[in-house]
What we know:
The complex is a heterodimer of chains A (114) and B (106). Chain A has strands spanning 4-6, 10-13, 19-25, 31-38, 42-49, 56-57, 64-70, 73-78, 87-94, 103-105, 109-113. Chain A is globular. Helices cover 0% and strands 54% of the residues of chain A. In chain A, strands 2, 4, 5, 6, 9, 10 and 11 form a seven-stranded mixed beta sheet that branches. A four-stranded antiparallel beta sheet of chain A has the order 1-3-8-7, with no helix packed on it. Chain B has 106 residues and is mainly β. Chain B has strands spanning 4-7, 10-14, 19-25, 32-37, 43-48, 52-56, 59-64, 69-74, 83-90, 94-96, 100-105. In chain B, strands 2, 4, 5, 9, 10 and 11 form a six-stranded mixed beta sheet that branches. Chain B has a five-stranded antiparallel beta sheet with strand order 1-3-8-7-6, with no helix packed on it. Chain A binds chain B through residues 33, 35, 40-45, 48, 58, 88, 90, 92, 100-105, 107-108, 110, and chain B through 31, 33, 35, 40-45, 48, 86, 88, 93-94, 96-99.
Amino acid sequence: DVKVTQSSRYLVKRTGEKVFLECVQDMDHENMFWYRQDPGLGLRLIYFSYDVKMKEKGDIPEGYSVSREKKERFSLILESASTNQTSMYLCASWAPGTVLDTQYFGPGTRLTVL
Amino acid sequence: GIQVEQSPPDLILQEGANSTLRCNFSDSVNNLQWFHQNPWGQLINLFYIPSGTKQNGRLSATTVATERYSLLYISSSQTTDSGVYFCAVFTGKLIFGQGTTLQVKP
């Protein structure tokens, strides 16, 4: 079974802090994704990565950056957290063209910025 | 870009009832998926169904690609079916609908 883990389930930070959200997958997937989920808006793609050291902007990259130094790890960075970044953050990994052609999601990190 | 719309936004059922969730998409797609998010936030893929019909236990899904919609059927609902159901289409990246929140009451 694919396993995607995220470093924290719940996180509380203060405005202006630098925040790191970590995601690790154990299936050697090349593709990894960061989404945020807000009520009434569904999941929106922040950034994704198709390979180590490679990153692409999603639909809402402003205020975020990412790092992919190793294949299994994809980090989301909030350079200076703001209250409008309070949200649920979901990481996913994916191996296209496999029998189960789907993304596998981590359990999510609920971030509150005060 | 492609639009994905789900209906209804909210649904409350008594245990044992059947339901149909709908997903409309605005353009041709070659990859449509249904996900369930449990009350603790975990998203699990239910179906990868670009066209046709698939069944998995009490759940089944049908996609009519030519008419740009997909349906998720839940039969004999159970309280464990509660949560949010998302459809998502792939166009180089996954585009999610806003979801249907289902509450099944005992």
